[in-house]
Amino acid sequence: xxxxxxxxxxSSGQLLVDxxxxxxxxxxxxxxxxxxxxxxxxxxxxxxxxxTHYVSRLAALSTVANAEDLIAELSVSVYAPPEKTxxxxxxxxxxSPAMYLDAVVKGEAAQAQAYIDQCLxxxxxxxxxxxxxxxxxxxxxxxxx
Length: 145
Known about the structure:
Structural class: alpha+beta
Strand order of the largest sheet: 1-2-3
Radius of gyration: 30 Å
Distance between the termini: 35 Å
Shape: elongated
Helix content: 40-55%
Order of helices and strands: EEEEEHHHHHHH
Number of strands: 5
Number of domains: 2
């Protein structure tokens, strides 16, 4: 991740850093007598203290430019899992194939039919989506874009 130092307040030791994804952080730099502590380089300090994983996550979540709006956005962000497809819903709802195999091995037609009826009920509950047919003219128009 790239960053730019926007401002450094030598009396308070606060460094304002802007990342390449547009997120700004204030870092408290350890200073003594308005000087940076000996043995440390500023680059190493910034890279060690800048929360890069957090910046990457914020960049993925937001396009907000200023910190106040970003905080407001993050405070109301709630993870919403993606909707399951009809195939996933069906797979979770089908009865166990062992039920059908048990019926076949025992020669019980009623149990086999019950399995088939349960599968048909699942298919009715979660039908396949109907494909949308598009005319060749519309396809050509989309390709031209």
